[in-house]
Amino acid sequence: MSTTILDRIKAYKLEEIKADKAKRAQSDVEA
Length: 31
Hints:
Layout: H1 5-30
């Protein structure tokens, strides 16, 4: 199975969103 550029972008965006949520959860805990 070959990964298309779109698949790569989608995966990257998903990781970015996950990291963003984790960051927000962290700052919520610290606040």
